[in-house]
Amino acid sequence: MNTLLWRDLRLALRNPRGWVMSVIFFVLFLSVMAIALGGNTTKLRPLAPPLIWMALLFGQLLTFPTIFQRDIVDGTYEQLHLSGISGLSITTSKMISCFVVSICPLLLAIPALGIGYGLDKTTLAAILLSVILGGPAIIAYGIFSGSIVAKEGNAGFLVILIALPFLVPVLIFALGGIASYRENGLWNLEFQALSGISLIAIAAAIPATAATLSSYQD
Fold first, then answer.
1. What is the Cα–Cα distance from 144 to 156, expressed in whole angstroms?
2. Nearest one of 155, 151, 19 to 78, comparing CA atoms
3. Which of 18, 27, 63, 184 could bond 188 through an S-S bridge, CB–CB 3.0 to 4.6 Å?
């Protein structure tokens, strides 16, 4: 498992187009929105949480089609399967590596962008916590939708159709948790629900993705 995880991380660093594109989109989207709203922090401050989450989700949707595509097309997944590595291990490794390379850079970018939006420390902390708690669900749904379209050439719109219905509840509870954080702290009801969604998403997506990938070997 450790070897597989290091392999996925090395491949992500050698071929960074997908996750770098999502980070660039995230930064550009928020920068353009700030400019469009006149750079007035009074206007930007209340809009920051939904804009950050919209940028996060749209940026991640760009990466979902390519999560397994390379491994399926070049035969890497078949070789891993023939070597006796289970689909569950392959899927779990991919989920962890995707979280590290796709979500962690955004956790570094959010505070810098938050300063431009005039956010205070409490709001920044709430946003970061929402991303940490909701990030696993985003990646879980991402790898599942990515496995479905792994053999498709241009599947961007199909991925959106598959993943977006699952991501809407994540967005709703994340924004609700941010709004409740100042009064109710970390363990507010919305963040509890968001954590539950992430746990359920992981538990459901790993076996479902492994089964989808295994079907390509039949």
1. 14
2. 151
3. 184
This prediction has a pTM of 0.91
- Is 213 exposed, middle or buried (CB count within 10 Å of its CB: 0-12, 13-18, 19+)? buried
Q: Backbone dihedral region of 131: left (phi > 0), alpha (psi from -120 to 50 degrees) or beta?
A: alpha
By residue count, the chain amounts to 218
Contact 90, 115 (CB under 8 A): no
The Cα–Cα gap between 52 and 161 comes to 21
21-36: buried (b, 16+ CB within 10 Å) or exposed (e) per residue? ebbebbbebbeebbee
Report in angstroms the alpha-carbon separations of 71 from 7, 39, 123, 134: 12, 43, 40, 27
pLDDT for 142-163, tens place per residue? 999 988 887 776 666 788 889 9
Question: What is the token pair recorded at 5?
Answer: 């995880």
- Reported as a single tens digit per residue, the pLDDT across 18-55 is 778 889 999 999 999 999 988 888 888 999 999 999 99
Give the whole-angstrom CA distance, residue 101 versus residue 23. 10
Please name the residue that has the structure tokens 């750079």. 39
Which structural domain range is residue 31 located in? 2-215
CA gap 31, 48 in Å, rounded: 11
Retrieve residue 130's tokens.
């929402």
